Amino acid sequence: MSKNTRSRNISKLIILALVLFVPGFLYIMVNKMGSNEYVKLPVFGEKSLSGKMNRVMGREIPDTVFHQLKPIEFQNYDGKPITFLGNDTSIYVAHLFYTKDEGLSKQLMQDMSTIANRFKANPQVELFSISVDPHDGPKELQEFIKPFAESMNPHWDVVSKPSVDIFSYARESMLIEAMPVVGDSNKFVISNQLVLIDSKKRIRGLYDISLRTEVDRLEDEIKVQLVEEFRNKPIKVERK
């Protein structure tokens, strides 16, 4: 047998061994490490046990009650009423702002426009920019959003005039900071975070826009959450 023939035979044996054994080895490693489970985002806020048990995959799991937001009403920038968290099949990204703020509010809107562009074709991702200023109405909102006109789409709502106290709602429900500035009715303290909320109205992410990588992380985690939503509510195909 020539040296070249022997080398080819050895190469074939190595390739055959890789084909036969590597997939099985990887499968064992994946299962050992637990990496075969889908990635899930954390749920923010207080948690408690309901006292009930749920049976999952043959195991009894304690039922957990998570922090949830309640839907509230706003006036949209076009003057029409709109419900925040009114759709139980959508996920939401929300933040606070006010039109007299040329600093943080403009940056939050700019980052939101980035998300709006990336998910403009997906109606399941709804965006809410929420004004905390009681003086902001449709006229002020429409003027404020002019620089972002190219990014505006039917899934991005810029709203004001909440049906509840927005400062309490922000702190207690959205888990972000918001308060009026004492002695100056034109200024407000608002959070620099974008909030990701799932279809069950639970907070799944908080993103500090002062960090450069946070908008990219939000984009990635929106995709992760969309996968979870699809797995929890798969499309039903009717059989004829």
UniProtKB/TrEMBL annotation:
The chain crosses the membrane at residues 12-30. The keyword Transmembrane applies. Pfam families: SCO1-SenC. Keywords: Membrane, Transmembrane, Transmembrane helix. The keyword Transport does not apply. InterPro entries: SCO1/SenC (IPR003782), Thioredoxin-like_sf (IPR036249). Belongs to the SCO1/2 family. This is Protein SCO1/2. It comes from Sphingobacterium lactis.
